[in-house]
């Protein structure tokens, strides 16, 4: 069978897809890059946001209309078992990827089959390309009131260090210059197997090769638990100076209502710790506006928080109730109120980020080229700031270059055409 994989959502989903490709090929299937030539489509789904779920359900309806057999894998299948009967196909929860062939057979036979297990994912992939996505753990130790992912990935499950290291080595041998270590909460890595994220990063730093590592989202309470041990691991030669840690609100009351395991102060302590250790570190965080208990004062606290902390990257979301969560049972705020707050916060963030990036104009930066773009190349600084180089007809993928920042948008540093190649980091 020819199998096409369609992946929605986070880097962990991308990593799961790579593992399913390995299992499918071992079962004798051929992985194709075009939906039209596929006999079966595997849809690896996401359920974090209502808008994403709507896109996925629309795509499933299109496949049904076109009479294309498909499997539903990932988080949406885990929280909606009715998909199996509705589409007469196999559905897999995120812990069942070793059974993807079973799902494929169900899709071909138009058989409704719920394939739910809680098995390890110690599957070594052989990814090709400049950027590799490697999952290191599933689940978390938290019980946030708004999070449906907790329902889809309830069990904390860390992959073996040896499996992860082999995946990193394979990816680098196949041309990866950036390795994205991902998880539901990478800060929880190892709690179930007697190790931790810092030890994993120390082991990754011992690997030979020319590559950099982006560490996926880790919640503040785990970073605070690891503290200086994690900072020391970040000093390793392969680690981007980039920290993604999620605060969700600038209001202490709302953070508590959300049942987060941290305070806003905890988050700021963590950011302060890492900014003291690394001058040009990029801090990424997540903000939800319009949580049911958020009043105008809480929203103002969030705006003040953003102005005070100035995270370099913010994933801003409008609250949408997710089925099965505690927050979905609360009285919801008016849609117009949520929309208005989102517009205000977005405008503030754009203004902040434009000013922050303008400070880079005129400076020389060092960039690792990781992607081709329509009119040049994209890359990342050691602090994981995104840069664009308007240069063509050069073999730059996987190389460090030096260039001067000519201008900047709120998301990207734009370099001049004049560059010079540099030694590997």
Give me some keywords for this one:
single chain; 425 residues; alpha/beta; Rossmann fold; pyruvate-formate lyase- activating enzyme; OB fold (Dihydrolipoamide Acetyltransferase, E2P); five-stranded mixed beta barrel; 14 helices; 18 strands
Structure description:
The chain is α/β, with parallel strands linked by helices and 425 residues long. The chain has three domains: 2-115, Rossmann fold (3-Layer(aba) Sandwich), CATH 3.40.50; 131-358, tm_1862 like domain (pyruvate-formate lyase- activating enzyme), CATH 3.80.30; 364-422, Nucleic acid-binding proteins (OB fold (Dihydrolipoamide Acetyltransferase, E2P)). It is 35% helix and 24% strand. The protein contains 14 helices and 18 strands. It has helices spanning 11-26, 50-65, 75-79, 82-87, 100-108, 149-152, 161-173, 197-205, 220-226, 228-234, 252-257, 264-277, 296-309, 335-358; strands spanning 2-7, 30-32, 40-45, 70-74, 90-92, 113-115, 131-138, 157-158, 178-183, 212-215, 242-244, 282-289, 313-318, 364-373, 376-380, 386-389, 400-408, 413-422. The strands form four sheets. Strands 2-1-3-4-5-6 form a six-stranded parallel sheet, sandwiched between helices. Strand 1, helix 1 (11-26) and strand 2 form a beta-alpha-beta unit. The protein is globular and about 60 Å long. The model has no long low-confidence stretch (mean pLDDT 96).
């Amino acid at each position: 069978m020819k199998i096409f994989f369609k992946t929605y959502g986070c880097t962990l989903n991308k990593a799961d897809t790579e593992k399913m490709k390995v299992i499918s090929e071992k079962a004798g299937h051929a992985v194709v890059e075009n939906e039209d030539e596929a006999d079966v489509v595997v849809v690896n789904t996401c359920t974090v946001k209502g808008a994403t779920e709507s896109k996925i359900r629309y795509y499933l309806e299109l496949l049904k209309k076109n009479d294309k057999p498909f499997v539903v894998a990932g988080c949406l299948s885990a929280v909606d078992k009715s998909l199996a009967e509705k589409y007469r196909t196999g559905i897999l929860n995120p812990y069942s990827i070793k059974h993807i062939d079973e799902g494929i057979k169900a899709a071909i036979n138009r058989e409704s089959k719920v394939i739910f297990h809680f098995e390890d994912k110690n599957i070594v992939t052989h990814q090709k390309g400049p950027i590799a996505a490697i999952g290191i753990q599933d689940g978390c130790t938290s019980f946030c009131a708004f999070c449906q992912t907790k329902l889809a990935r309830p069990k904390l499950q860390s992959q073996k260090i040896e499996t992860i290291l082999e995946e990193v080595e394979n990816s680098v041998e196949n041309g990866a210059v950036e390795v994205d270590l991902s998880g539901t909460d990478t800060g929880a890595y190892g709690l179930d197997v007697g190790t931790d994220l810092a030890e994993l990063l120390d082991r990754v730093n011992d690997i030979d090769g020319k590559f950099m590592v982006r560490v996926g989202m880790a919640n503040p309470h785990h970073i605070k638990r690891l503290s200086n041990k994690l900072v020391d691991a970040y000093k390793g030669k392969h680690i981007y100076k980039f920290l993604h840690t999620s605060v969700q609100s600038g209001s202490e009351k709302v953070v508590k209502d959300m049942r987060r395991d941290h305070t806003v102060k905890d988050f700021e302590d963590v950011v302060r710790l890492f900014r003291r250790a690394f001058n040009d570190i990029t801090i990424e965080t997540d903000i939800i506006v319009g949580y049911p208990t958020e009043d105008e004062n809480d929203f103002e606290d969030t705006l003040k928080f953003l102005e005070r902390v100035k995270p370099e990257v913010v994933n801003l979301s409008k609250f949408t109730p997710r089925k099965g969560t505690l927050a979905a049972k609360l009285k919801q705020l008016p849609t117009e109120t949520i929309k208005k707050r989102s517009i205000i916060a977005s405008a503030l963030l754009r203004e902040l980020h434009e000013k922050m990036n303008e400070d880079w104009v005129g400076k020389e930066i060092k960039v690792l080229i990781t992607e081709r773009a329509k009119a040049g190349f994209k890359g990342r600084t050691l602090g994981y700031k995104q840069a664009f180089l308007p240069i063509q007809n050069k073999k730059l993928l996987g190389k460090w270059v030096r260039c001067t920042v000519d201008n900047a948008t709120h998301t990207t540093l734009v370099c001049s055409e004049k560059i010079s190649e540099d030694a590997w980091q």
